[in-house]
Amino acid sequence: MPDQLLTIGELARRTGRRASSIRYYEQIGLLPEPERVGGQRRYQPDSVRTLAVIDTAQRAGLSLDEIKALLGAGQGSRDAVEELRSIAARKVPQVTAMIERAVLVRNWLEQASRCECPTLEECPLFSEDGDRADDGCG
How many domains does the chain have? Predict the structure, then answer.
């Protein structure tokens, strides 16, 4: 029904996405090509949900290729849930490593913020074992 279809402007308004992003998602296959009415794109109402899935997945750190695989499994199917589990299982170690790295960086920066060394040459933060500059830096 054409009355239920959404224009690209309405879809953008409802989802908080730019029309250019919506067109890009079509181009790369995240959104199906919409119907055309009078040459204008018209989207099914379920496109709002698809864009919500894309947004949430991006915020969770999924790549566009991973999102495409997730959506390709079919949102309303158990296959999609299995794909989600598979992607999540692969991502958890990556995120864990990023968190561990971020903790190391934070600790180094906290030590650097307390540094009272007269020069960088004398600062243990810049030695080969600089991540362990607990003695004599601050």
Answer: 2
